Amino acid sequence: MKKIILFADPGIDDSVAIMYALLNPEIEVLAIVSSYGNVDKEQATDNIAYLLHLAGREDVPIIGGTNAPSSGETPTYYPEIHGEDGLGPIRPPEEISMELTNFSELYTIIRDNKGLTIVDVGRNTSLASLFLLGEDLTEDVKEFYIMGGAFFVPGNVTPSAEANFYGDPTASHLVMKEFNDIYLAPLNVTNKAIITMEHVQTILEMTDHPLVQILDDVMKYYIDAYKKLVPGISGAPMHDVVTLSLMVNPSMGKTIRRDVDVLTAGSGMGTSIADFRVSSKPAEKNSNIYLELDYEAFLKDFIKVMSSSGEK
Ligand code: BDR
Ligand code: CA
Asked: What pLDDT does 239 receive?
């Protein structure tokens, strides 16, 4: 069983990642940090509260993360991919809301759960803040699983930059430079984690769990958006879900140990760089980049977890 704190900005694939984490018997969600990203922080918080309500898991605290990137610029949101409110066509009922827990509570949770894993599937501003505001986490956090960057493939917001790293490149640069025990799931791997409407139907035929019932509408919106972006694609990439799936099943992918740099300015802003030359050396610190994914294993795991009862 892995104990995790999940940093997210739901967002459709973030929302499915939250469902996956709550349903997976191998994962105990200690807290979810809500931040700006695919939608603003307030909307992200309402979406997390709605998902926790559907799961009957209002005991999981929602921690208030950051509102904007460290540049101070107004964030760009992506309604064409994630919907106006981040859940495709779904608007969470107004009467469902949860109080935000103060950011400082994260230090208590981390101290009380030594050896936990931190998973960040959004912009890295909140995670960088954890370092900037507090003490050294290396003793207490076992590993950081991060969705971000792109190697050997184009970016998804600029020719070379991926959305999470582009959203706050200064924060991503800091996280990659200062943190240890990093496992990075970049676009070259997450783009392959395609889920189709046929897969969704298979899941829905196997479960009547209330949390999963919104999957149909949410995934239809997300897949339609991707079909406009990438002609010929059969479904949509579950960037954030596969990051969690790799955390539980690390051997489902192959990693290479390399330092990662993130460009913070210029036309390459948000671009991730690592040295893959034959003469290059493994990173001195434990910094790992996923380069390969066993797609069939991911698919099997995704369907199994999403159709499970959620009993831990
Ligand atoms: C990442 O950007 C967001 O839009 C997704 O939720 C994912 O975390 C993919 O580039
Ligand atoms: Ca995300």
From this structure: 98
Predicted pLDDT at 134: 84
Residue-wise pLDDT tens digits, 157-212? 999 999 999 999 999 999 999 999 999 999 999 999 999 999 999 999 999 999 99
**Per residue, what are the HEC states of 165-200?**
HHHCHHHHHHHHHHCCCEEEECHHHHCCCEECHHHH
Domain ranges in the chain are 2-306
Ligand having the closest approach to the CA of 83 = 1
**Cis previous bond, 86, omega within 30:** no
CATH topology for 2-306? Inosine-uridine Nucleoside N-ribohydrolase; Chain A (3.90.245)
267 burial type by CB count under 10 A (0-12 exposed, 13-18 middle, 19+ buried)? exposed
Residue 301 Cβ < 6 Å to ligand 1:
no
Task: Give the distance (Å) from ligand 1 centre to CA of residue 198.
Answer: 22
pLDDT of residue 292: 97
Query: Token digits for 277?
Result: 């030359």
Cα separation, 180 vs 276, whole angstroms:
20
* Nearest ligand 1 atom, CA 81: 4
Return all residues near 277 (Cβ < 8 A) that are at least 6 apart: none
Pocket test for ligand 1, best of 35, 121, 192 (most atoms within 8 A of CB): 121
CB distance 24 to 66 below 8 Å: no
The Cα–Cα gap between 300 and 289 comes to 23
Q: Which atom of ligand 1 is nearest to the CA of 240?
A: 8
Determine phi and psi for 221, rounding to 5 degrees. Answer: -60, -45
Longest dimension (CA), the chain: 59
Q: Please tell me the distance from the alpha carbon of residue 106 to that of residue 282, in angstroms, as a whole number.
A: 32
* pTM (two decimals): 0.97
